Amino acid sequence: MSVTVRIPTQLRTLTGGVGEVSVEASTVGDALKALDASHPGFGERIFDENGKLRRFVNVFLADEDVRFLSGLDTSVSDGQTLSIVPAVAGG
Question: Which of 17, 54, 56, 80 has its CA 20 to 30 A from that of 65?
Fold first, then answer.
Protein backbone atom coordinates (compact mmCIF):
# COMPACT_ATOMS: atom_id res chain seq x y z
CA MET A 1 0.00 0.00 0.00
CA SER A 2 1.25 3.46 -0.80
CA VAL A 3 1.67 5.71 2.23
CA THR A 4 2.82 9.33 2.23
CA VAL A 5 5.38 10.31 4.87
CA ARG A 6 5.63 14.00 5.72
CA ILE A 7 9.20 14.99 6.45
CA PRO A 8 9.98 17.77 8.95
CA THR A 9 12.17 20.63 7.78
CA GLN A 10 15.08 19.48 9.98
CA LEU A 11 15.28 16.13 8.14
CA ARG A 12 14.71 17.28 4.57
CA THR A 13 18.44 17.27 3.88
CA LEU A 14 18.04 13.47 3.76
CA THR A 15 15.39 13.73 1.03
CA GLY A 16 17.05 16.40 -1.07
CA GLY A 17 14.64 19.02 0.26
CA VAL A 18 11.46 17.07 -0.49
CA GLY A 19 8.72 17.49 2.14
CA GLU A 20 6.73 14.33 1.34
CA VAL A 21 7.87 10.86 0.33
CA SER A 22 5.71 7.94 -0.80
CA VAL A 23 6.60 4.45 0.40
CA GLU A 24 5.03 1.01 0.17
CA ALA A 25 4.11 -0.41 3.59
CA SER A 26 1.43 -2.15 5.63
CA THR A 27 2.50 -0.86 9.07
CA VAL A 28 4.00 2.31 10.49
CA GLY A 29 7.26 0.47 11.22
CA ASP A 30 7.45 -0.85 7.66
CA ALA A 31 6.84 2.66 6.31
CA LEU A 32 9.66 4.14 8.40
CA LYS A 33 12.03 1.32 7.42
CA ALA A 34 11.13 1.84 3.74
CA LEU A 35 11.82 5.55 4.21
CA ASP A 36 15.26 4.74 5.60
CA ALA A 37 15.93 2.29 2.76
CA SER A 38 15.14 4.89 0.11
CA HIS A 39 16.71 7.81 2.01
CA PRO A 40 19.50 6.48 4.26
CA GLY A 41 20.00 8.25 7.56
CA PHE A 42 16.41 8.30 8.78
CA GLY A 43 16.74 5.10 10.79
CA GLU A 44 19.47 6.41 13.07
CA ARG A 45 17.52 9.62 13.67
CA ILE A 46 14.12 8.11 14.43
CA PHE A 47 14.93 4.69 15.98
CA ASP A 48 16.87 4.04 19.18
CA GLU A 49 19.36 1.19 19.63
CA ASN A 50 16.46 -1.18 20.44
CA GLY A 51 14.53 -0.36 17.26
CA LYS A 52 11.90 1.71 19.09
CA LEU A 53 10.94 5.28 18.27
CA ARG A 54 13.24 7.76 19.96
CA ARG A 55 11.57 9.64 22.81
CA PHE A 56 11.86 13.00 21.06
CA VAL A 57 10.36 11.79 17.77
CA ASN A 58 6.59 11.70 17.38
CA VAL A 59 4.88 9.95 14.50
CA PHE A 60 1.27 10.67 13.68
CA LEU A 61 -1.04 8.63 11.50
CA ALA A 62 -3.58 11.19 10.36
CA ASP A 63 -4.11 13.07 13.67
CA GLU A 64 -3.29 10.18 16.04
CA ASP A 65 0.04 9.69 17.80
CA VAL A 66 1.03 6.10 16.93
CA ARG A 67 2.23 5.57 20.51
CA PHE A 68 -1.45 5.65 21.54
CA LEU A 69 -2.39 3.19 18.79
CA SER A 70 -0.26 0.07 18.26
CA GLY A 71 3.05 1.89 17.91
CA LEU A 72 5.23 0.70 15.05
CA ASP A 73 2.81 -2.22 14.51
CA THR A 74 -0.05 0.15 13.66
CA SER A 75 -1.59 -0.84 10.32
CA VAL A 76 -1.70 1.71 7.54
CA SER A 77 -4.10 1.84 4.62
CA ASP A 78 -3.45 2.87 1.05
CA GLY A 79 -3.34 6.65 0.74
CA GLN A 80 -2.86 7.41 4.44
CA THR A 81 -0.35 10.01 5.63
CA LEU A 82 2.27 9.65 8.34
CA SER A 83 3.85 12.76 9.82
CA ILE A 84 7.20 12.74 11.58
CA VAL A 85 7.18 15.50 14.19
CA PRO A 86 10.26 16.18 16.31
CA ALA A 87 9.44 17.10 19.89
CA VAL A 88 9.81 20.76 20.74
CA ALA A 89 11.17 21.85 24.10
CA GLY A 90 12.04 25.13 25.59
CA GLY A 91 10.82 27.73 27.93
Answer: 17
